[in-house]
Write a structure and sequence with these properties.
Length: 163
């Protein structure tokens, strides 16, 4: 009995962790660039939960969403049934993979505001590669563009700071 309880508790923790990482954006959320503020398409106001839903509890939605009960129920149902998986890839706006993993609010960028590290330094040399690994920089920089702030930080960390 206790063992089962323990297992189900740890499963719950895992699910909670997964949800932390994969928060789902509300289908009625719409982002206003460049200030990264989520607006509600229904109330036309700033979204009090910044469109971040927290399934399976949806506690924030229940408590702070300004939509009516029918809308809230609809949002929950859409997500619970797996019909809607969140806006992970919105055309024209992107997340910086380095900011994404740090704490704080996620920032979205226009593609033109993101940079390939490889345009600034040769990242395929053994020397640079080992500096990147030693500095603990995410290898996402090999497959994704990053924002200006992160670019500066990375260049600084690997000793290739642009003047
Ligand atoms: Zn960044």
């Amino acid at each position: 009995m206790d063992a089962i309880k323990r297992i189900s508790n740890s499963v719950r923790v895992l699910i909670m962790k997964a949800n932390e990482e994969n928060r789902i954006n509300c289908p009625f959320g719409s982002i206003k660039l460049p200030i990264d503020l989520w607006y509600c398409k229904l109330t036309k106001q700033a979204c009090p939960i910044q469109a971040w839903l927290d399934p399976p509890e949806f506690a924030k939605l229940e408590r702070y969403c300004k939509g009516d009960e029918k809308t809230k129920a609809g949002i929950k149902e859409t997500i619970q049934t797996g019909l809607y998986k969140g806006q992970h890839h919105l055309p024209g706006r992107y997340l910086c993979p380095l900011c994404k993993s740090s704490k704080g609010s996620r920032r979205y960028f226009y593609e033109g505001d993101l940079y390939w590290l490889s345009d600034y330094v040769d990242i395929d040399t053994c020397e640079t590669r080992s500096k990147i690994v030693k500095a603990g920089i995410s290898l996402a920089i090999y497959s994704s563009k990053i924002c200006k702030d992160c670019l500066d930080k990375v260049l600084d960390k690997i000793g290739a700071k642009q003047s």
